[in-house]
Predict the 3D structure of the following.
Amino acid sequence: MAVADARAMRPALRLAEADLRADAELLGRIADWCRRFTPLAATDPPDGLLMDVSGAAHLFGGEAALLAEVERRLAAQGFAARAAIAPGPALTRALARFSRLRHVAEGATREELEAIAAGLPVAALDLDETARHRLDRAGLRSLGDLLARPRAPLTARLGTETMARLDAIACRRREPISPRFEAPDFMAERRFPDGLTRQEDIERTLAALARELCLLLERHGVGARALEAVFYRVDGAVAHIETGTSRPLRDPETIALLLRERLAVLAEEGLDTGYGYDVLRLGAARVERCDAPQADLGVEKIDLAGRESESGARLDDLVDRLGARLGPRRVLRLYPQASHIPELAVALRPACAPAPATAETVPPAYPRESGAPARPLRLFERPEPIEAAALTPDGPPLRFRWRRRLHELAAYEGPERIAPQWWSAPADAATRDYFYVEDREGRRLWLFREGLVGRESAQPRWFVHGLF
Amino acid sequence: MSRSGSSERIVFLRRRIAGLEAGGEPPPARAGDDAFSRLFNPSRGGLGEALPARPTDAAAAAGFAFALALRRLRLRPQGAIVWIAEDMAARELGLPYGRGLQAAGLPPERLVLARTRRPRETLWAMEEALKSGAAVVIAESWAEASAYDLTASRRLALAARRSGSAGLLLLPRAAGAAPRLASAAETRFEIAACAPPPRAEGAPRPLPGPPAFRLRVVKARGLIGAFDPQAWRDIVFDHEEAEFHGAPFHALPFHALPGRVLAAPSDRPALAPAARARRALA
């Protein structure tokens, strides 16, 4: 019906532009919420959700009770939802949309399933307008009519895809559900009749869950490398926190501490507990083998405090804790690289990632006393351009302006010529001449001139690259 | 000047007068003497603060904090250093550079670099690192002097004292605020870049000297009265010994080098021995 016709019939009609992306987002959020019933929940765009409840239904008092629970909770959130439970996803989908029958028990026989499918209208096949019209003209109104026909001519007329759909609805063929999130390997959860609103309660519950999870992990001889905690709010909102660890973790207190940091970040960003969280779930999304620690065999490891008796575990824990709050990409370690380009000579990598195996030989650093050229203590991520004028084409700038302040040269060392890596650099990469300079007030900077005067550029540019 | 700074000064002057009345010489306060060696004693944990005298001295203050850290790490050969850099400070001062740290005597595998977004995060990360007992924690925060208050510093100082770690907080934005700052830190330094000695007319420009700082000790708990909080003092850091020297700047041999040599390509795999020899000759 056109909008104008609808308006003519009902003048009070309120119009809203369809926002497909928002709808899809909402559907995703509802799917997340559905994970409170089972870890395997998938969206069925544009308007459906699929859940694999095998083995989960008894937790809610059977399939019928689960169905009622899902409908009641969705209705409470203001969604008009129709739900069904059946042995196959396609059949369930069709039942929810086209049938009054809402529940097919798990042990239904093949004949029973086909009989149920036979009662569904042809519309359940998702055909386009013309195909539906054609079936209608041929007098085929229900799936039963189709199922009773010989298969070959029907396939020729409808196509293999439609036939596959028909088979799926009749449960002749198994169809997988691809869940939105992989179910964690190990998990522990708590359900509460009333929502938890206080952060301390949530933290305490998480600590209890961590203890439970660690028991599970210990039994299987593994430790968690990635943890996820999911909070289901009474009104349907789902909060999700994830954190990684730098070594397989099986210590409940350390896990609880990590989660507390992540939770604190959420709280800073405004964790809205609303009516409270009623389901809390903690899972180990990725695990790794973790053997019980053995007495130290004198393995040397960099230790936090520098006492030999302690292992590097505390430094790892600190890295995890900082990473949980700041984000793992903000806690870094420095790895020297085999490159003579200053900014490429050291790589910054997340500290929780395993140290890269360096295939190339990395040259050792020479102490300054050996006559090695100076390297600054601090390097700018991006060299800062300065205004400078040199007396001679190869000489240092006698005066330069950096950050609107004039610096006058008092002492210098250089130039140290660093050519681009000709085997990998772009053709227009320029040679740099580095100078270690000290200005009249004693500030020490690392400058470079980009481009050889005359050969590579007529007007070379100057930059500050580091500070001493 | 506020009360805290002026009271330090008054205590210092009283001590001096007491010394004069007793008939003795005023106690010398030079780097290397008793008070300074106690102040720079690397086995001392606790919280220290380094503030630049002027905004442009921030790099010098960072260098001084690093020198203090090196001294302490010399004592703990297995100890780790946690360096916390706030984004804004990193933009103004750059990030610690592995090659430079390596050349100064810090193996990069002992360093963990944490990058924070806000002063609050920096203070939190510093407290965590201190609590975990890292040998040295250096934090650079772009916080204003007013944002870093007594409560925050007290937490840090307590964490440092309990674990025996040394924390160094660098406040590059609070330039010149050292005498006004009220905090629970054990020590507070105000750092400025140390100007090189004037060059004779017509003389060629020398090589830059060793790292030198001009500092004054604004606060030193346990050593009250030992330092004049208003007197500036030049010190030179010796990377090899991880030691501060208070020798007059121009007496150092480094600046006596008349000629200049091109930096030798000695960090390359094919280290040129001739380059070293040339350097030694120069």
Summary: DSSP finds twelve helices and 14 strands in chain A. The mean pLDDT of chain A is 82.
